[in-house]
Specification:
elongated, alpha+beta, five-stranded antiparallel beta sheet, two-stranded antiparallel sheet, about 300 residues, 10 helices
Length: about 300
């Protein structure tokens, strides 16, 4: 196969014999919040996580970094970070076992419509692998050096119910190629997940996409105003979701768009002296007092008063 791509995996042997390396998985070292790049080649293609040490490596076939790591270090359990399939290397067979369900749920949290409906009705604590209790939806976000303003806005938006419910189901935007939309949805699912291995979530991948999409306007190491970031994020998500100026063209407009009526009064400059004398000084309406009234309805998402 081409470099970096693994040969087809052998048929799973879990129906015949249990994988002997399942107990080598160390959940305390697993962290799926960081950018999914190989720790050796820095490639983002075909990346696996070693479930023993938590490091990311590319490939699965011979001469790949994951294969080499498995043979040199004796770490055999690897999870594909996109497909969530788990393999045993270097034997190269897929492992399907119910004991790995928690790893898959941590790697890719998912929500059914019924579960989404119950989020605001059931407020029970969850526990991470260290035994630390946390409340889904209220878990902390790591500060990646002066990115606290991003954390504030994300937490705020994570509790806007219509917006939250939309992004918790990736089928709502599966046809949108925007990495920002994808990472924002992924972070909201982690915030509301009960299956996290840590009680604190890192927004690293979202911050990376924010930096790229904003052309370094918002980046790690530089403070910014949370209100400015909120306005930018809402407008960018609206555009990336295919939104236009037409009202209701995206979930952002459905949730946040308002309407304001602007009324303008202007003096009628064409009044003659006779007309001016006929103006009633005690009139209560602007028209009777010699003013012209113009009204216009304007839509807005972010209004500064």
């Amino acid at each position: 196969p081409p470099p970096g791509l693994a040969p087809p995996a052998k048929r799973s042997r879990t129906n015949e014999v249990q994988c002997p390396y399942l107990d080598t998985i160390n959940r305390h070292l697993l962290d799926f919040d960081f950018e999914k790049v190989c720790s050796q080649s820095l490639s983002t293609q075909n990346v696996y996580s070693c479930l023993v040490c938590g490091k990311f490596f590319q490939g699965r076939g011979p001469k790949t970094h994951a294969y080499t790591h498995a043979t040199l270090c004796g770490h055999h359990m690897f999870a594909h970070l996109d497909t969530c399939k788990i393999y045993c290397l270097p034997d190269n067979y897929e492992v399907v076992d119910s004991s790995l369900d928690d790893v898959i749920r941590c790697l890719r949290p998912s929500f059914t419509p019924e579960r989404i409906e119950q989020l605001d009705k059931v407020a029970t604590l969850a526990r991470d692998v260290h035994g630390v209790a946390y409340l889904p939806g209220f878990c902390g976000l790591n500060n990646l050096k002066k990115t606290d303003y991003i954390n504030v806005v994300v937490h705020q938006l994570a509790h806007v119910r219509p917006l939250r419910d939309f992004f918790l189901d990736p089928r709502n935007y599966k046809d949108r190629p925007s990495p920002l939309v994808r990472e924002f949805g992924a972070l909201l699912r982690k915030i509301w997940s009960r299956d996290n291995f840590k009680s604190v979530v890192s927004p690293h991948e979202l911050v990376q996409e924010v930096t790229r999409a904003s052309k370094l306007r918002f980046k790690i190491g530089t403070s910014a105003d949370a209100a400015d970031f909120l306005g930018w994020l809402l407008n960018q998500l609206h555009r990336d979701l295919g939104g236009t100026k037409r009202p209701g063209s995206s979930i952002i407009h459905d949730v946040f768009q308002g309407s304001i009526r602007v009324e303008t009064l202007s003096r009628k400059t064409h009044l003659t002296k006779r007309d001016d004398a006929d103006v009633d000084a005690t009139a209560t309406s602007a028209e009777s007092a010699g003013w012209k009234r113009d009204e216009k309805d304007l839509n807005f998402v972010y209004l500064t008063l």
